[in-house]
Amino acid sequence: MLTITPGKLSWPQLRAIAASFEPIALAPECEAKVRASAAAIDGIIACGKPAYGINTGFGKLTKVRIPDDQLEQLQVNLVRSHAVGVGPLLDDATVRMILALKIASLARGHSGVRWEVLQTMVAMYNAQIWPCIPAQGSVGASGDLAPLAHLTLAAMGEGKVRVNGEIVPAGDALRSAGIAPIRLAAKEGLALLNGTQASTGIALIALFSAQRTFAAAVVTGALAVDAAGGSDTPFDPRIHAVRGQPGQIRVARLYRELLAGSAIRESHRYEDVRVQDPYSLRCQPQVMGACHDLLSQAAATLLTEANAVSDNPLVFPDTGEVLSGGNFHAEPVAFAADQIAIAMAEVGALSERRIALLIDNNMSGLPAFLVAEAGLNSGFMIAHVTAAALASENKTLAHPASVDSLPTSANQEDHVSMATFAARKALDVATNARRIVAIELLAACQGIEFRRPLRSSERLEMAHALLRQAVPRYEQDRFFAEDIELADRLVADGSYVPFVPDLFEGAAC
Q: Where, per the database record, does this protein carry 2,3-didehydroalanine (Ser) (predicted)?
């Protein structure tokens, strides 16, 4: 059982939510705060004071006063009208993250929802009833309206949900689980729809994927240094200390540790013909270090947002005030997601260049295209083309979504973040980079074997052996896509994370 203490979600908890299902419970102390928040809404209705979204219309219709006997219908209409998402459905892991984040935010006690609403949402989570949420339709302000409307609609017993991989009517799924659908009270539909949980949830999934790929890319980069007969001098700590960039210093240390004790390196230490290696080998600490810093900054932003209250208006029970603001604007999430995309585009671009180096016998000193009898065999020739295609695709995808804005809601919402698209795009870039790194893993391990009987370091030989448990050596041309898929699985599941411990301080992979 994973206990959610609102405002205190941790990296281990978020990673656990993303990785697999585990029942959740809310910390007991949050119930009083939630009930006080709901009581404040009742007080506002009782005194008849106009308050946005509670007894008024929404957006441009904020001046329309809604009679008390229509307040529930107002919330129901809001949810139904906002459930306008299109495109492919988000996967279960992403929906699970979004639902958990929404529960945690509402449980902070500033949203005015009743305790019973949270109990229903927790029950849905624990019954593994995942709302069908289309991926497209949010501009990231006023929050992720369309995605969260689909989530809320399911809790009302309307729309569709996915249970055990099967799409079924939400009402049927709730009945089967013995869960009563939510009947929305004043403010509740708005509280459920406002917020950045969809963009934040997708961005967290992208971050976790990016960090696992980054770890593997450091390992494959070190393998490529040995496979290409490169130097370890560029990883000397003195070089990085005089610059002072924290990510660069950390990553350089990891390369030194990975290459320490390599017999391949020792064999040419005093007879290097190349005075300096190509940048894709030599500048790894500088490029990967900069990417590390971007990912770390994005992680810090997303952890803060995962614990945030981001709907509107906000209830402050201690004074009975309801304050209208803009916490739903997802600009921090948009920037974080764009940072992930930019960093991972560079990780993939650098990896692609190392693949190109390894297959070029003039540069690497290895057999052309990393295969015996080149000509009869094409070897890694077209695997590199795949890597190049993915790297090129990432260059377009890495263009920041956050620099765009289209006014909506009759110009009431006249600047938006595009955070949900930024997050989806970041995940696509991270996936492309992961597949490039998987191809480099195959190429670098193949290159290491052409250096036999010399061996690399103990840690890199273990990394090599891990691949060879899944993929045999490439002796002659064969169906290559399966090899790439198997290597990709190793990168995707984090198999290479233990080779670079403490890579992301405070947000370990």
A: 142
